[in-house]
Amino acid sequence: MGKTAAAITGISEWKPARVWEQPMFALEAAAQLAAEVLADAGLTRDQVDGILIGGLPESPMFAPSALAEYLGLRSNFNEVVDLGGATACGMIWRAAAAIEVGACETALVLCPSVPAPLPASSGGAPGKMQMPAYLGGDAWGSPQGQFDIPSGLVAATPGFAMIASRYLATHLVKPETLAKIAVHARYNAQANPLAIFRGRPIAIEDVLASKLVADPLRLLEIVMPCFGGGACLVQRADAARRGPRRPVLVSGFGEHLTHKTVSYMPDLLDTPIRVAAERAFRMAGASREAIDLASIYDCYTITVLLTIEDAGFCRKGQGAAFVDDHDLRWDGGDWPLNTHGGQLGAGQAGMAGGLSHALEAVRQIQGRALGRQLPRAELAYVNGTGGLMAEQVALILEGA
User: Fold this and answer.
1) Which of 15, 82, 184, 346 has the fewest CB atoms inside 10 Å of its own CB, making it the most exposed?
2) In-domain check, residue 331
3) Residue 341's closest CA among 207, 196, 204, 185?
4) What one-character-per-residue DSSP string does 80-95 give?
5) What is the pLDDT of residues 36-51, one digit of tens each?
């Protein structure tokens, strides 16, 4: 992958919400996001020849063709990516790689994360969070459905709690250290008009006093699921330089996965982030010390701690000391982390929540992170975490 092959030029992001006031089908949301991101990049629909999406509820099969039909596109590169929280970052690098090999020139990365209008016969409240009848998302016959879920490993929180328990017991981490991650995320969210928790800062005492959900994880260490949407446009870099926005080059990436559920994780304290990040930094030819901002997937506070370690920003087992020794806030902090508030502060709007980390890095590099602009933002580390610390994607983004 060459540093000059592909760049992110346009972005669009909607304010997350717990209740979506105007329910729309994912196709409708994707169309609106596509129009917004094209306008931001100064391009027209007929210049798009690549489509990437994480799936469409209205078209479980043939999602790219359904989307192309709805948007009126003729596309040369079409991809459905299924990596959970790492999906958005996975779509970005796939788009960049496709551009480098000549499969397409301009690709839409779309993350509509909205509740579909419900049929009148369903009895559900439109626009509100609808929980599945069978949590876990594992079909009949899967190992997880037969063994993990009946044992209490339902959805994500118990699995991440197991990882946190092992980490805290091994490295004797103070609960205040993990709480600091949540507190600084909320602090950064106060400067983000899109953040769901804007106007609601918290202190370490608030985190430690919040409800214990799955020992040792407390309520304020866990993301709030909500709705929203996001998109970006990945374009051939030489064409991007002629546009209205500063191109943000996708100069390095890495992807790695080792398991699906935590019970099959080879080592609870050695995550796939390590391999993914090493590949990304090596490809970009960048050093950890040169990073101006980190946009780290933060579904839980423990995820951030392990990512800091396994991405190589400190030695293994020193993540807690790193957090204790650094200021993670956008205004004056010595190691700005998730300057938009992350998902802990801005809300986890499905796959759009994962995309928000990349979009924030783009804003900072382009100099339009209004109200929270860093004095220097040339090189960013971005990552996505999917499943139970399973699927990992790392990106290095830099200004052209």
Assistant:
1) 82
2) yes
3) 185
4) E---GGGHHHHHHHHH
5) 999 999 999 999 999 9
